[in-house]
Design goal:
heterodimer, A: alpha/beta, 8-stranded mixed sheet, 10 helices, 12 strands, 28% helix, B: alpha/beta, Rossmann fold, 4-stranded antiparallel sheet, 9 helices
Amino acid sequence: MVMKLPAGSTNNYIVRVENLSVYFTKGGMFSKKILIKALDNVSLTIRNREILGVVGESGSGKTTLGRTTIGLQKPTYGNVYLNVDGKEINVAKAKFKEINKYVQMVYQDPYSSIDPIMRVYDVLAMPLRYRKETDIDRKIEDAMRLVELPLELLENRVFQLSGGQRQRLSIARAIIVNPRYIVADEPTTMLDASLKGEILKIIKDAREVKGITFMLITHELPLAKIISDRIVVLYLGKVVEIGKANEIIKNPLHPYTQALIDAYPRINPEMKDKLKEAKIKPDIERPEKGCIFAPRCPFAMPKCKEQEPSLKEVAPDHYVACWLY
Amino acid sequence: MLLEVKDLKIYFYTKRGVVKAVDGVNLNVDKGEIVGLAGESGSGKSTIGYGIMRLVPYPGKIIEGQILFKGEDILKIDEETFRRNYRWKKIAMVFQGSMSGFTPVFKIKDQIIEVLKLHGWNGDYEERIKELFKMVNMDPVLADKYPHELSGGQKQRAFIAMALALNPELLIADEPTTALDVIVQQYIINLFKKLRKELGISIIFITHDLALLSEVTDRNYILYAGKIMESGPSEIIFKKPRHPYTQALIDSIATLDKDMIKGIPGTMPDLSNPPVGCRFNTRCPFAKDICFKEEPKMRMFSDGDEVACWLY
């Protein structure tokens, strides 16, 4: 039997997400219980050694997707598989110890994700000691070099580091155990524009040098474009478009992706005052059925309100969920 | 000139020393002008905003300078008169993170009515709220809701409505779009343009997002470590910036037409012990001897650009 792979798959994948839904409930004590569909029937694969950019506005399910792929969040329905060392591991069913040698995470806020009173050396030594690894000093030096932190900082405490240095340390802590796959959740959001470029470069270097696959979660489309091989656009818990990064930016197919790209400011004073009114309404309503974007879509047809579109390959390796195609 | 800030110095008296957050800043805003104030975090841009509102938080203090509003030095007015006649009435501010600035336990409407009442608004409160909500492109029905029932973008617009309640002549908007997604950001930007056109209001737009500034401002001030590095019309600042800091800042912004972005190596100096000479000398690729000895003065160019740099 031939296994059916989700849109945009090759056999050389490291993560396979199959019909994944994650629901949360809100309220219940004093108010009506509401079901929030953080992810709704998402299928995709992450290819080996790729940097996959996941973009979408707040509440689109980006972080939930990242967390579920490394077992930090249990799926409500569907499965996530990790394809490493020649075997496929079902992430939700596996013991955490079984998968945590393959996966790591870099968090958004470098001020709260590292213990401020630890020494830099200990931050990096701890995961190695936990895994009973040897040659700790050499591995720490290698990791510090890869993230371009001066070795003199090893004796410093974390609170003495700047935000940019802390985020480098956070990446070093993730790569030091030689994982195969890292979820980087908005790693540049808390940093000044002047530091973002350097963090992106480190992620690229880590991929080149160590062959690590990255999921880069961001709400900043330009950053995703600069660093990713492919981009996934999420909207209210659904994948609306997947494709090569350049292709998505140059030739966006889904009306939501198009609106996102139009809304991006460009440094170009001639653009001033020529700016068109944003095509789509800013307020979110989630429809009961049909395409989730239909209430805001300028091209919505009667069919869009009735039936939900599924991902369709419109151009080579470029998938979109929209009835226009 | 609506607002003239002259040689403003705001220092913070902390246990670790005196932090010179704003150190001799000059800034002008004309009537109906949208002026950008940009820089990295810690450059002092919000502190200037708070200074103009006379709301500098403890342990900060305005120690020198003048803030002339229509020619009158508002730093010389006593607090009671300033509160009654200027703050919110003539100069209003949309604070950073003001989306969470509403009290969760009262309806938006009641919070705006309180502002109107406190400042002795003569007229129908309900009518005024309707007017204000229309001005910020919102359904007046939403005024009857509690803050948690609105989305982030709606709350931000409601706060702008509250800032406009008393017809101020100057609006200071401190990072008004930072926590919003791009589509909502575009709405807020278009809203500012509309307010300027319809009300003739002047706006100081404080942000670290230069790409966004380039779409809305007439003139800009680029701030670094408490000092203005460059100021000038948007066509110059974003097209051919002269100061190495402005150049680096623009190179570091990610836009969709770029394939790679550069960073600015190094970090901002400790402002309790700022470097001698130009404050950017620790990170500047062009720094020469004089930059470490003497502070450059503002130099004006014929195209209206002003730069404090020894390269020129």
